[in-house]
Each structure stands twice: as C-alpha cells, then as structure tokens.
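User: Sorry, folds how?
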Amino acid sequence: MMVSNGQTGRVKASASPAGAPTPLYGFRPPVGTPYGLEVTTIEDFHAHHDDWPWNPPLPGRATFHYLILVTSGALYHDVDHVTRTVIPGQWLWVRPGHTQCWHPPGTATGPFILFEQDVLGAETARLLTPVTAHDAPAVLTPHPEDAPWAERTALQLLDEHRALGRRSLDLHHALRRSLLEALLLRLAHDPDTTPPPPDGRTGGRRATVHRQFLDALELHFRELHRVDDYARLLGCSVRTLTRAAQDTAGTGARQVIDERRLLEARRLLGLSRWTASAVAAHLGFPDAADFGRFFRNRTGLTPAAYAARDERQQTGTHDPGARGQAAARGRAGRAGLPGRHPRGRRPEIPER
C-alpha cells in the first residue's frame, strides 16, 4: 500500500547526525490498482500488518495523503508530535510531509483512503487549497448535515475501488476520482478548516500574499529567519506581509516563521533524535545556547527535556491489551476469518 524505492521498501532518507533517519514513504498500491488512489478500511489495514508499524512505534513521513473516517471506536494517531484522538463522525487527514506515528490497534473502524495529490483535477486542487495546505487541521468534524453524506460517499468510493474489473479501467478510475473529489470538496466546507471569506479586493490580495509567504517559508525556513527577508523575496513591504499574516492567520509574520522553525525542531529532537547542537546548526541558530533559549521560551522545556519526554511517550500506549488484539487480528486475517482484505489482496508495506 505504501511506498518504495524498489529495493528496501523505503524512499531513501538522509541520516540525521544522531544516526537513525525518519523514513519517507512514497506511494505504491497493490499490483493492478490504477493510478494514485488506494481505498481500504482501518480494520483491514490493522489485520494485515500484524504489529507493524506500532510495535515498536515507527514514525515516518509520506509523500501522499492519508484520509480516515472513524465510524466506530476511537483512533489515536500522532501527527507532528501531537496525539490526535479521532471519534466516530470525525476524519483524520494527514498531509504529505507530516511526521506521523501509529498507535497500537484499538476499536476504531471505518474507511481509509490514501491518495496522491496528482490524482485530483487542476480546478479541484485549486478549490481544495484550504484543506490540503500543510498547516490545515489534522482532525475534521463535518457539519451535522454533511456528515452522513460524506460517510456514504466514502463507502461508495470503497465499493467502487473493490470493483476493479467490473468496468473498463478508464471508467473505473473516473468514477473513483469523481467520488474522491466530491468527498474532499464537501469536507473543504468543514467549519474547522474553512477560512473566513476575503474582505473585498484588499482581503483577496492579502490572502494571496500570505499563501506566497507560506510557500516561500517551506523552502527557506532554515536560512531565512526575518520578516524583511521574505518581504524582499516576495517583492512587497514588511508592512504588507505583516498585515497579510495578521488578516489571514490571525498572527504576526514573525510568529509564523518562529512556529515553522519550532515545528522542525520538535520533529528533529523527538523522532529523529538529533542533538541540540545539530538542530541549532540545521536551523541557522548561532549556537546551541541560542537555540535552547528559543526552544524553552516557546515550549517551557529545554531541548534535552523535550527529547526525553517524547521518548517516554513513544514507549507508552493508550490500551494495554492492544498488542494482543493486533496479534489476534493478524491470525484471523491469515486464517481467512472476517477482516480479510477484499479479493485476497494484501497491501504492500515497507520491509523492516
């Protein structure tokens, strides 16, 4: 189901100064599945992966989207070092590039959709910008009037995906893509993710400047740390950039820059186990002491204390019996009991 370079099952990731890299997973659905879209269920995913990747927790990043609807039970999933609790009726959306970590299987059930950004049509992708953005919320709660419709559409998508061979390949994919786009467009109107409409022409211009600022920040946050750096890069004044950030995100441009650097520091200290000195050098701080002050002022913890806390959290679980449940699911799947992947296909996974 996930990714590979064709040799080890993982896209090569750059090793950190502390040693172990955070793996980057590309998209590779089961053989015969057309285009960049795979649909399964949470329970099938758990049943056919035994104890991988939650025992032990194996954090990683993907080059594609994870979209999960919880229809019963509760799902726990770490996204950028924050444990998200997803309850029935809510959706978990993990965007490409986010660091994520699975928890041991629990009671959650529901459709599980994996797709590449390129599977979307150009106009649909433009309309979905608010929900496909890197900083969009990970947990979505649709409006009560939209929730049943979204669930039905997800189940129709699952049914069509399992119907490979029933129709011509082009028609099959057109139906899958249409259902996916309809689902995503409806979710884009979730009150938690839809930004307020721009206030006339000025608001529209400021929103555009802010989007350009975020794009530039993703490329240059390691070496550019001042607001005037980005203002020059975008060809606007510091005042224009500051107002754009304040009107669109409700915070100053400097805070947006600092939050992006802080997020990267958390990723490197927590999952990749980089040292404070290595993170300081990577993010352009003069030295480890300066980075330590920056980090502590914003988190209340020193880099070392944060890394130690994160390591302790990675070894804990929400459900002491979850490991046994995972093993039971794996045995049931191998025996052909309920929970078997449709059509006998086993999702492909990276080698460990």
